[in-house]
Amino acid sequence: MAASGQSQQRLTQHPAYDGQPSWSPDGSKLLFVSDRSGGWRIWVMDADGKNPTQLSQQPLSENPIWSPDGNQIAYDADGNNDGWLELWVMNADGTNQRKVYEPGYPYDAWMSSWSPDGKRLAFTRAEWLQYQGNWYWVGAQTASFNLVNSVLVDMHPRDPVVSPHWQTTDNTEPVTSLGIQPVYQRNAATLAWIANDPGGAGILQYDVQYRLGPSGVWTDWRMNVTPGSSNLLNFAPLSGETVYFRTRAIDRAFNAESWPGESGDTFTTFYDWAIVGTAYDNRGTPLIGISADDQQYAFDILASNNTGEFSTYFSGQQTTFAPAWSGIGYLNLPATTFPAEKDVTQDVIMPPADNVVNNWGFETGNFSGADWSARGLPTPVLVTTNPHTGQYAAFLGESIVFSPTLKIHGDGNSFTGGSDIRLDGDGRLHTVWWTDTTQTGIGLEIFYSSRHLTGPGTPPSSFQMLQLLSALFPGTSLPLVRLTLPGLQKTVPIQRCFIPGALLLAYGPTPCK
């Protein structure tokens, strides 16, 4: 019936005894005791009386009480048929029926209530006396049994108290704080939160909801999250969607925190690929209103602000994306293809609208026609490497090809790394670099390569290499180094000597004097 006493409705129609009803915490089901199966047992049915189902199997099952979280049921029963009632607990679906406390002769245990934290049972321990063939109830004490550590506590050992009910003094809602999310995120969001319960009962669980877009419907996502689990949840991405999140806590006194308003606690927008950068004109001035768009996959396009910074976010399972830049008063830049493995930072220079240079981006892919005439030696070529924007760039000059790298092993050195380059009088460019490959300061390896500026030329002699190495090591002393050089048939110690006005690198078994 309603709380006012109206709308009374009979729920059971069976001729057997049906009594001792108990609501589930969510109000969807009712426990009751019935002997319709031949003896008193615990039954459950829907709140409207439908789908009655027997749960307990023990004789004299009675006084069923739901746990605060609705996951378990406590009751008393005579499971061993000795005539005395014990405390029993089972799962809400009737599984895992187990005896948790047996008072022993001559006592009954009458189940009364759960503690708000769901860890203890309050019950009446009734004492009986047999006199002249009759049993007489002579006393009752209130006790509690801890389901976690099986500790029994006599709460009122001298007072005849029956049917104790556990209540809490905490009537204050807990307070939850959900971490703020970035405005845009790639891949997934990690939600983290903390909660405080001013009433002191402690946090029982968290509930988390989400919705898609500012006008979407709030949807349960993670409910009944216990404090013992991680307060970090990964939300699978919904690319191109702005997702709002909100959370609440419920304490062990079952005070439920109010859900935040329609804006929730935080929101974020997921994307698959992004490009950011700064737009300039051809004089280096930051531009306002320049945007990058691919006309297909871009869903959030943020045009450049007063500092020239722009950003665009794309949605689509693509291996590449090809944005193009545009803005009022400037020519559009050609579409430029980027791999989608990671986000890209790309600054751009916008050509003026009155630009008179045809094919200024070389996007025709050749120098033929009336736009360009490529002359001189070496001849300019079009390449697809390192384009500023678009697909092509003009390469002027020729590639510098050095001789094969020569690795010169050394030992006993304390150098940690460096490099140098020298041009000799014959037009040959020499370069040398060294590094400590062992990260210990003693594993020096020296590398050498050269190139003649006008042609192959003559490879350097061993003595030329020694002169070059001498010039590369600054200072007035050089730790002893053992080198194997081209033209030398053995490994020899090398030491540089300092002579005023000259540098000399000597090699051989005798150090400089």
Q: Helix and strand layout, with pairings?
A:
Blueprint: E1 18-23, E2 29-34, E3 41-46, E4 53-54, E5 62-66, E6 72-77, E7 86-91, E8 98-101, E9 107-114, E10 120-131, E11 134-146, E12 152-156, E13 175-178, E14 184-186, E15 189-196, E16 203-212, E17 219-225, E18 232-235, E19 242-251, E20 266-271, E21 273-280, E22 291-293, E23 298-302, E24 309-314, E25 320-321, E26 324-326, E27 338-339, E28 344-345, E29 348-349, E30 381-383, E31 393-395, E32 406-409, E33 417-423, E34 428-436, E35 444-452, H1 462-472, E36 481-483, E37 492-499, E38 502-507
Parallel strand pairs: 14-20, 21-28, 21-29
Antiparallel strand pairs: 1-2, 2-3, 3-4, 5-6, 6-7, 7-8, 9-10, 10-11, 11-12, 13-15, 15-18, 16-17, 16-19, 19-20, 21-24, 22-26, 23-24, 25-27, 30-31, 32-35, 33-34, 34-35, 36-37, 37-38
Mind explaining what this structure looks like?
- The chain is built from 1 helix and 38 strands.
- With 513 residues, the protein is mostly beta strands.
- It has a 5-stranded mixed β-sheet with strand order 14-20-19-16-17, with no helix packed on it.
- The longest helix has 11 residues, at 462-472.
